[in-house]
Write a structure and sequence with these properties.
Elements lengths: L3 H14 L1 E4 L2 E5 L15 E2 H13 L4 H13 L19 E7 L2 E7 L12 H17 L3 H4 L1 H15 L29 H17 L7 H19 E2 L1 H8 L23 H6 L6 E2 L2 E3 L2 E3 L2 E2 H10 L4 H13 L1 H4 L8 E2 L4 H8 L20 H10 L3 H14 L9 E2 L5 E2 L8 H15 L4 H4 L13
Antiparallel strand pairs: 1-2, 3-4, 4-5, 6-7, 8-9, 10-11, 12-13
Helix pairs in contact: 1-17, 2-4, 2-17, 3-4, 4-7, 7-8, 7-11, 11-12, 11-15, 15-16, 15-17, 16-17
The protein binds alpha-D-glucopyranose.
Length: 460
């Protein structure tokens, strides 16, 4: 293994190589620079992939690339009122963009899912953009960018999209399958946790960034309260709550019922009862009519801890669970994107026989080093730095020799992902951000939120 500084130097170099330029200015990083794989769209800058790179640049005192990214992304945001079904909804940001040369001039072309495999909608992009805008303001102290009228209008459009026209009556956000990091069919449509956690962090960011007279400010505040109550109460799984669900009655009608979502106890999966620990807990992957998805999703849970969507008690329990189920969730590379994998008939039905998402591979139970930065932030926020140190140590042993692999396969993440890219930029950046956070925990303020003073926690 290389000495720390040599490893870090390699990471710096690889991140530098991933920078994308537009009209002479750095504006983002490409998803991967794998010399042995066909680029497909990995030579584009993905919004979600750029987040750890951006945070690292901010931590390094290099905010220009982040500013350029924020400005150009605002330019790519869908502005027209949607008049035909092929136009992206007003307010949406693309999943990714590329630089195209036309008549000798460079142009940016966004992909809202018109090109992406399976034509998935990138709902998470507008949330990441808002979260990053807040991080930029925090890092530079420069509020003028966010207060510019075009930025205020951009925020307004995102809020309009999320807070106004809708089909349902929940505080959570209804989305199609594959609309975030898991951008393939995985049974994550409806109300997936990751979207709710990002939505929450984006609303918190908007509340900080909007000018006091902004029309949506009261709606943002109210939504934050309802969303917090809903997620903390109904998504939460620990032994106490499992006992409640186990004894649920079905078919309850009316306003004051226990089993509001008509969950049948028979849907509690066998693995869960032994897997839950006395002091551990987590937020379920999804909740809708007649459905709790009991799978553990890494990003959603960590983001809920970082943003304080989870209560203090719940945040501690999430980190306890990661600690107590270390082999399952961290294993040979932090961290499982989702646990457990869908197998057999479930894999068949839910993924549509997806050969890339076979059990314990890729999104279906693979381990993703990009999650290291979120794990580090969540561990520091909950005052459990030892978890972050242990995870980083595991990652350090393999990242460089495995050439910054995109993901890992197997129950414990022992194998380099079957179709994993090498030199995956967010793997590199996540490692660098994790290191920086451990060196200087003050950086947590860029991406974490204190408990919301407007909200009374509903569960102890
Ligand atoms: C894959 C991942 C997605 C990521 C993209 C670029 O499609 O599922 O989350 O943004 O690759 O790395």
């Amino acid at each position: 293994m290389l000495a720390d500084s040599a490893l870090t130097e390699e990471a710096h170099k690889a991140l530098e190589d991933a920078i994308l330029y537009y009209r002479g200015k750095p504006i983002g990083t490409v998803a991967a620079c794998d010399p042995d794989a066909e680029a497909v769209n990995y030579d584009q800058c993905f919004v979600r992939d750029f987040v750890p790179s951006a945070l690292f640049f901010l931590m390094q005192g290099k905010p220009d690339i982040v500013r350029n990214f924020l400005v150009e992304m605002l330019g790519l945001q869908s502005r027209e009122r949607r008049l035909d079904c092929f136009q992206p909804g007003q307010g949406l940001h693309p999943a990714s963009f590329k630089v195209q040369v036309q008549d000798g001039e460079e142009h940016l072309i966004g992909d809202f899912g018109e090109q992406a495999i399976a034509r998935v909608a990138p709902i998470d992009s507008c949330f990441w953009w808002l979260i990053l805008l807040r991080a930029y303001v925090k890092a530079t102290g420069d509020r003028t960018l966010a207060h510019r009228s075009d930025f205020q209008h951009g925020i307004h459009l995102i809020l309009q999209l999320c807070l106004e026209a809708r089909f349902d009556l929940f505080p959570t956000l209804l989305v199609p399958d594959g609309s975030f990091m898991i951008d393939r069919r995985m049974g994550v449509y409806g109300y997936p946790l990751e979207i709710q956690a990002l939505f929450y962090a984006a609303l918190r960011s908007a509340r900080e960034l909007l000018l006091p007279e902004a029309t949506y400010l009261p709606a943002v505040k109210t939504r934050l309260q309802h969303l917090t109550y809903h997620v903390q109460t109904y998504y939460w799984i620990d032994l106490k709550r499992l006992n409640e669900i186990y004894r649920y009655k079905g078919e309850e009608f009316g306003a004051l019922v226990m089993n509001q979502f008509n969950i049948y106890p028979d849907t509690i999966p066998g693995w869960l009862i032994d897997w839950l620990t006395d002091t551990g807990g987590y937020l379920a992957g999804n909740l809708g009519p007649g459905q709790i998805d009991f799978r553990f999703f890494g990003l959603g849970n960590l983001m809920a801890v970082m943003s304080s969507l989870a209560s203090e008690h719940q945040s501690q329990a999430v980190m306890n669970l990661i600690d107590q189920r270390w082999q399952d969730l961290i294993g040979y590379m932090p961290l499982k994107i989702c646990f457990p994998a869908l197998e057999g008939q479930d894999w068949h039905t839910v993924t549509g026989c997806d050969p890339k998402n076979t059990p314990w591979s890729y999104h279906n139970g693979g381990n993703w080093p990009v999650l290291l930065w979120l794990l580090t932030a969540a561990a520091l926020k909950t005052n459990k730095p030892e978890l972050a140190y242990s995870a980083l140590k595991i990652a350090e042993e393999r990242l460089l020799s495995d050439q910054w692999s995109e993901y890992y396969d197997g129950r414990q993440g022992k194998l380099i992902g079957k179709e994993a890219r090498k030199y995956q930029t967010w793997t590199i950046a996540a490692f660098l951000v994790a290191q920086e956070l451990l060196k200087n925990p003050n950086f947590l303020s860029l991406i974490c939120f204190d408990a919301d003073p407007d909200v009374t926690p509903c569960r102890s």
